[in-house]
Amino acid sequence: MGEEFGTIPFLNFNIDAFLNIAGDDPLTAMLYLFLHGGWIIFVFVFFWALKYGWLEYIQNKANAKREWILLRISIPKASEQTCRAAENLFANLAGAHSPAGWTETWLKGATQAALSVEIASIDGEVGLYVHSLRGMRDLVEASIYAQYPDAEIEEVEDFAKKVPADYPDEKYDMWGTEMRTIMPDPFPIKTYLEFEDKISGEFKDPLAAVFEIMSRLGKGEQAWFQIVIVPTDQREARGRAEKLVNKLKGIKEAPKKTWIDSLIEIPLGVVKDLVSVAMGGSASPAKSDKKEEFPRMMALSPGEKMVLEAVERKTSKLGFMCKIRIVYVCKKEVFSKGKFVAPFIGAIKQINTYNMQALAPESKRVGLKSDAWWFKEQRNAVRKGKLIRAYRSRSGSKGLKQFFLSVEELATLWHFPILMQVKAPSLRRIESKKSEPPSYIPFS
Description:
alpha+beta; 13 helices; 2 domains; Vanillyl-alcohol Oxidase, Chain A, domain 3
């Protein structure tokens, strides 16, 4: 038996021989390592690449057959709906979640379709848009009409396809970025509920400044604000939230045992009990969870309790895995980064908090770098093209990692303007409500 196993290369590896060769000839040592079992690593890498290469191929093939539409939504001037309506809208859109089984995923390339809610200013005219599969149009329209019965929805041409995607360009220049979360995503941003004065009851629209800034753009300027939302079962998001809640409460989580741990613990436990009995003792009793006499919850400060309540509130809501992009693109003769970028980012920062969550523009991997030392223009030109193409495809995978936002947070970041407060003259809206004609009007 020993001679048979000795003929197997990776069971007959001579560490001394390898170290001697490595000191004199590294290339020969690598070949020795490969021939004596190292090839197994390459086999695993090959099959891993084959597996996910096939998955990407089949998914790209399936996605190419999908038909996407862009819907523009206008609402009457007299509309006085609040952010609560937008929260209900997003809760309805969560019904788009349709998990694919093994067969659909690996043989048909099925993926969870994302939606994109957007605010865009084209030559200073501000509009609200929803990008979705054509097959989801009924769901999108029903969700909107349920909260905004007098809204007007029309299918329009994609504005993102009307500007170049390769830079540098002779006529156009652009700036863009993605927003990242400063803290883990179970921490919530400031939501619309906190923009209401508790004494007077007056509500200040958190998007009023955003609409105002975007409406000030002129001819040849465009600004796009995109939130890609991917419906999810929230299992992973809830798991992250539960870990954070336990940490805030001071509850220590027991380390998860692997099958190897269980395999080792069982015989060790038996041996320990046998030794204990042989020495006149008894078998060890089952361990009982000891509760802390003074749990950390009793020592939480008011600020810590507020954070805990906010995290638990977010966990109780429906939500989506999200990605946020901002793009400013216009003709070179009117391009003015300072006119839009700083004011817009400042307006978004209204929802940031120091003790919980904050959104910030990213520049290390995706956004444009102003402090790059090497090949700054070339590197930024590549990033510009990637940002435009990612925006066009409404991709949830390209760029930074997605993060979880509840429907309450999404309603804060994207909702129809509360027109009593938003005075932007270029905001697209219907002059009056539409209604059915009276039944008594005679028809010839």
